[in-house]
Write a structure and sequence with these properties.
mainly alpha; 2 domains; 4 helices
């Protein structure tokens, strides 16, 4: 007679996520409910609710998967070869010049089409 209560891990994770959402919503609701209190205290309360909600959410399978994803993202971010300051400035200058040239081109194209339209409709006199 060795019976254990079979609790579905998916259901327990759902409860954890709902509890985390309830804590977050409760923190925001408390922020507005206690509007006569100091904004600093209310902000600290919301941040505390956010922290508790995140901690509860991280206990679920989805939260743990999100945490592993964030950790692996940090590892990949460290592998990125960032451009030097000179490369960044050169690329930025190239983009600005290209935008300026295209802006002038489209302005001239617009003026040309306007001139042609006025000439065809007889409004250019």
């Amino acid at each position: 007679m060795n019976s254990k209560a079979d609790i579905d891990p998916g259901a327990l994770d759902t409860v954890k996520l709902l509890l985390a959402a309830a804590v977050l919503i409760g923190g925001v609701a408390a922020f507005y409910y206690f509007e006569d209190q100091s904004i600093l205290l209310r902000t600290v309360g919301v941040l505390a609710a956010l922290g508790v909600g995140v901690l509860i959410g991280l206990q679920s399978a989805q939260g743990q998967a999100l945490w592993r994803f964030m950790q692996s993202s940090r590892v990949e971010l460290r592998k990125v070869v960032w451009p030097t300051r000179q490369e960044t400035l050169q690329t930025t200058l190239t983009v600005f010049v290209f935008v300026l040239v295209l802006g002038i081109f489209f302005w001239l194209l617009d003026m040309g089409l306007l001139w042609i339209t006025r000439w065809l409709t007889g409004q250019g006199t």
